[in-house]
């Protein structure tokens, strides 16, 4: 992938850096694998329930097969497409039995690449298989949290996890956040790295491009009246005067993870590199 730096022929193009989408092969998705969903504007009964949200462009949702439900049959990647609901690219896979599915495109995969989802296959890029059959040290993505569910972990553009080893019925995986976590060995994962690694280097360049995405302006609490925010009020530009809080009075930065979270037993090392204390 490459980045495209726009020439500042207009004020909105100054400093704009976008992902070069010349690698995409089609402009419109397959109609049978799309669905219209009602977008959320962050309001209920006319009242704002989610701040800084609303007024975005209309989108068609692409039905992505995170479960890789077509098993033991080879498929061919026929397209590389843009998906407005995620920063990674998606690909249309046509299987040898005629079925068609959208999947998350692995990095460094071209049109005509053959992939398969099966129990015992070679660990080639794009193949999906159980963790117990993946070589240690392999980069993986689209990992299932529980067996026979669907891939929910590591799906963002340019991300990948690393299989560190095995411990009984579990596999140790280091996630992109540096957290080391246990997964059941029967959970499926896809070999490789998620496509579009340059998505993190994009510079939107203007506020309008954020409005297209449904992001509304954010106002600092310090400039609000005291009845609208704990930081508000005071004479001229002052200081907060207390611990920073959110609009509802909760302390900013306070840990919100439940002490008796049932998934804590699967975390070996947290994202700061410290051994996770199981409570």
Keywords:
single chain, 2 domains, mainly beta, OB fold (Dihydrolipoamide Acetyltransferase, E2P), Ribosomal protein L2, domain 3, 279 residues
Structural notes for this entry:
The chain contains 1 helix and 19 strands. It is mainly beta and 279 residues long. The protein has 2 domains: 3-200, OB fold (Dihydrolipoamide Acetyltransferase, E2P); 221-279, Irregular (Ribosomal protein L2, domain 3), CATH 4.10.950. Strands 11-18-12-15-16-17-19 form a 7-stranded antiparallel β-sheet, with no helix packed on it. A 4-stranded antiparallel β-sheet has the order 9-8-7-10, with no helix packed on it. The chain has a two-stranded antiparallel sheet with strand order 1-2. The longest helix has 6 residues, at 207-212. The two termini are 44 Å apart.
């Amino acid at each position: 992938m490459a980045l495209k730096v726009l020439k500042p022929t207009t004020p909105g193009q100054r400093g704009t850096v976008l992902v070069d989408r010349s690698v995409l092969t089609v402009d419109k998705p397959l109609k049978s694998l799309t669905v219209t969903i009602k977008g959320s504007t962050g309001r209920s009964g006319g009242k704002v329930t989610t701040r800084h949200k609303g007024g975005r462009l209309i989108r068609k949702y692409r039905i992505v097969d995170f479960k890789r439900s077509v098993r033991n049959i080879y498929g061919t990647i026929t397209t590389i497409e843009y998906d407005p609901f995620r920063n990674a690219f998606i690909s249309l896979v046509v299987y040898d039995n005629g079925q068609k599915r959208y999947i998350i495109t692995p990095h460094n995969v071209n049109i005509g690449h053959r992939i398969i989802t099966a129990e015992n296959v070679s660990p080639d890029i794009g193949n999906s298989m159980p963790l117990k059959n993946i070589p240690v040290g392999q980069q993986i993505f689209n990992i299932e949290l529980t067996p026979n569910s669907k891939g929910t972990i590591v799906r963002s553009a340019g991300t990948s996890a690393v299989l560190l080893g095995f411990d009984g019925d579990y596999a140790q995986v280091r996630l992109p956040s540096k957290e080391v976590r246990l997964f059941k060995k029967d959970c499926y994962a896809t070999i490789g790295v998620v496509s579009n690694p340059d998505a993190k280097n994009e510079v939107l360049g203007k506020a309008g491009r954020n409005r297209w995405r449904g992001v509304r302006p954010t106002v600092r609490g310090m400039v609000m009246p005291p009845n609208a925010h704990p930081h508000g009020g005071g004479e001229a530009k002052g200081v907060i005067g207390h611990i920073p809080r959110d609009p509802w009075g909760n302390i900013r930065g306070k840990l919100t993870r439940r002490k008796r979270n049932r998934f804590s037993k699967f975390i070996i090392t947290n994202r700061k590199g410290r051994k996770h204390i199981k409570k």
